[in-house]
Amino acid sequence: MAESVTVRAPGKVNLFLAVGPKRPDGFHDLATVFQAIGVYDTITASAAPAGISLTMSHLGEDLPTDDRNLAVQAARLIAERANVDLRERGVHLSIDKHIPVAGGMAGGSADAAGTLVALNELWRKPLAPHALMDIAAELGSDVPFCLMGGTAIGYGRGEVLSPVLARGQHCYLIATMIDGLSTPAVFREFDALNPTPQAAPEVSPTLLHALAQGDTALVAYAFRNDLMTPALNLHRGARHVIEFFCNNSLTVMVSGSGPTLIAQVDSFERGQVLAERLATWPHVADAFVAYGPVPGIELVRTSRRAASNSPFGKDHPNGDGPNHDDPTVHDPIDDDANAYDPNAYDPNAYDTIDDYDFDDSIDVDGPLPPTEDLPTLFDEPTSEDLDESISRHPSSRPGVRPLLRVIEDPDDDASTATASDDANITPDKDS
């Protein structure tokens, strides 16, 4: 049985966010297009004698580690649904946080989603994917998408998901701010600026067409975020930083409820040059470049107790080196797993594994996007176009989401596979 499981969870950006009327439950109806991007938190779940404990490092050092943390809430909820008695089978969570905190990139939701997958693996998969999706929806609006990854339309609070055909990859320049923003505060500002009831939100067909065609210029043209003005009203520093993007002829948008700013760039190299300059601006905590879309939760390491009759001599793949007698076997993992490598993307490394096919778990009972204009958008590409799209990025395949990525050799028992707010404290309402 695994003694620990390590996963990494990607952040997200909202390419489109339309805010509708406020609902009786205090949330707003949303129409959004999520895209998972290559900046990651790493979550390790380890067996412990009893209870739940949490430590956080890097960007998470100042975050709460008690029940206010969404990852702890996720651990309690999955233990309850899986009938795991935490008094007898405890867990320790360790989160190495690289997704910006309170920045509109779903860092807390990503940690919760990663915790669900890590514990489901640690406890030998007691829950099916649809059950994990149900738990995710209870935890927060962004958590279901963080499980799913790729590109998706979100309706309702954002938890009613439908995969989107997204061809190729997009390169984003991202600027995070020194000070974060409260999601409820941004929605309150939105309500103050929009006192009359809003129309039911709909996703732009232009954006869906641009994503289906892989038209990066049109994707940037179709950017929309109804929370951008309220976020900038509350964060004057981010308003100042927008000047940098405008001076460099970039279409800029706030991600989610902000204050993180995103813009598409035409190449990783140009993005790196701009990021180095942007990082020196006042109010900017960090600037970096990331590609999207990427898959959801990646399972990258397990640690198992060695069998008593397996001494692991030096001829064993885990047996060479000075620690070959260690009774705990650790699967290999890149020590720099969180560093983004633009050359590391390998389409052939992705595969679809039924164990975590979250597409089968998507809630389609809620409001769905309007369909009148969509058939022509998705019928237009030829079969040759789709074959080319799939070869460039497998998550483009309609109806198939490569949620699992084999990190090590899939034929090796020691290898693992990958399963494919913003502060780790989740608000009760979005306004």
TrEMBL record:
InterPro entries: GHMP_kinase_C_sf, GHMP_kinase_N_dom, IspE, Ribosomal_Su5_D2-typ_SF, Ribsml_uS5_D2-typ_fold_subgr
Region described as Disordered: 306-431
Feature: compositional bias, Acidic residues: 352-363
Annotated GO biological process: isopentenyl diphosphate biosynthetic process, methylerythritol 4-phosphate pathway; terpenoid biosynthetic process
Pfam family, one: GHMP_kinases_N
Organism of provenance: Bowdeniella nasicola
Pathway info: Isoprenoid biosynthesis; isopentenyl diphosphate biosynthesis via DXP pathway; isopentenyl diphosphate from 1-deoxy-D-xylulose 5-phosphate: step 3/6
UniProt biased composition (Low complexity): 339-351
Biased composition (Basic and acidic residues): 313-332
Similarity comment: family membership: Belongs to the GHMP kinase family. IspE subfamily.
UniProt-listed Enzyme Commission number(s): 2.7.1.148
Top EC category: transferase
Record domain GHMP kinase N-terminal: where: 69-150
Protein name, UniProt field: 4-diphosphocytidyl-2-C-methyl-D-erythritol kinase
SUPFAM superfamilies: GHMP Kinase, C-terminal domain, Ribosomal protein S5 domain 2-like
A GO term for molecular function: 4-(cytidine 5'-diphospho)-2-C-methyl-D-erythritol kinase activity
Domain of life: Bacteria
